[in-house]
Amino acid sequence: MSDNMDFEKNMDKLEEIVKKLEKGNLPLEESFKLFKEGLLLSQKLNNVLNDIEGKITMLVNNDEEIPFNLEEDKDV
To answer: Taking each helix axis from N to C terminus, what angle separates 28-62 and 7-23, rounded to the nearest 10 degrees?
Structure first.
């Protein structure tokens, strides 16, 4: 997993992992590896969403302009 992938690519990768796991025809070791990778991806995506939610909340509550740096958010 590359840290340079953007949110959408990470989401696509997570969906791909879930589909593979749902099929249920993988060896146990490979299933565990995919599960672990999916869990890490899920946590990173959740952190990005929480960060953006916090920025939006600050914007709404304080009426302040907060720069949105797309490059910064790609480090997920």
So the answer is: 140
**Distance separating the N- and C-terminal Cα atoms of the chain:** 10
Residue the block writes with tokens 């991806």: 41
pLDDT per residue over 8-33, tens digit each? 999 999 999 999 999 999 999 999 99
DSSP letter at 38 equals H
Burial code (b: 16+ CB inside 10 Å, e: under 16) for 38-57 equals beebeebbeebeeeeeeeee
Tokens representing 59 are 């914007």
Which residues 6+ apart lie within 8 Å of 42 measured at CB? 14
pLDDT number for residue 66: 62
| Single-letter amino acid, residue 74 | K
